[in-house]
């Protein structure tokens, strides 16, 4: 099994490297009328952390397909989702437990 | 009400897709008991998980949900790999025994526990979301909004109905074809689950990304589209994969096929040896 051992070795050795790069923290609030702000603007090629406070009385799930996160927020709870570095463009996030509650992230070249 | 129905329906269908494809791929094995116990265990787990979500979240310094999801995805990967390897060896044995033996082989059911776990995990993952969603609606809605609960429940029923239809549709394909391709199908699902898991771990910084977006195939199949979401839950498709996701996807597929190949090889080698010693 030399192939498997090699792959495992690569995987584990690189897992030990410190991957905690500095993150840009963005604040987001979920209100009964939707996300606030509805649009976030971030520079390209930066690791991002989005902090969400759920100010509604219902459980919400902050999800994005193109930014690859999915996290449950209980009422009055706060969560953080992590993504990036992102290339320039427009990305969308939404509350998975509600219809048509969406927001966008605009990624701009620095 | 319609919105609730659609949200619940989608969650149920996502779990249902995995269940029907895995069951169809294992057609010919007596796995009804495993499938049903998997669903039941998953549902119980989902209800328990829904109660403790905020607890999971606050533990592990805010990474709780990510680590939990990654761990159950990796467990499902291991189980599918085990099932694939087991089937490729056992399936061959079955083909060589007579009908009576096959029956007893199917009944002994060893190795089938992997299926139970895979299905339990699929139900657990989507089920806990449905339970949380319906539960919070139930708490926050007054009597007039009972229609929301009805919407939720009909969403569940509709999801089960579509899943079952889908399963019947897949099983219509003759057994011979399913058996020859089921290894590939199960391996691809396993690869997809593992690449989702490492994607989650790389996003929170526990694994390196090896490139955040190796390519962007949104123009072919967008991650936001209906088909993209289905492809995501079955083969782990994402329009903008990370390097580590691609590597993991290929590695899992390679390891499973390689192990299966080796085992088959050893099996035939042993068989020849047996014949030689009989003469």
TrEMBL record, chain A:
Official protein name in the record: EfeO-type cupredoxin-like domain-containing protein
Keywords noted in UniProt: Signal
Domain of life assignment: Bacteria
Signal sequence, renumbered to the chain: 1-21
Domain EfeO-type cupredoxin-like positions: 7-107
Organism: Marinomonas spartinae
From TrEMBL, chain B:
Predominant location category: membrane
Subcellular location: Membrane
Record-level Gene Ontology MF annotations: ferrous iron transmembrane transporter activity
Membrane topology: Multi-pass membrane protein
Transmembrane segments: 35-55, 67-89, 110-128, 148-171, 183-206, 226-256
Keywords: Membrane, Transmembrane, Transmembrane helix
Gene Ontology cellular component terms for the protein in this record: high-affinity iron permease complex
Domain of life where this protein originates: Bacteria
Similarity annotation: Belongs to the oxidase-dependent Fe transporter (OFeT) (TC 9.A.10.1) family.
Stored PANTHER family: IRON TRANSPORTER FTH1 (PTHR31632), PLASMA MEMBRANE IRON PERMEASE (PTHR31632:SF2)
Protein name: Ferrous iron permease EfeU
Organism: Marinomonas spartinae
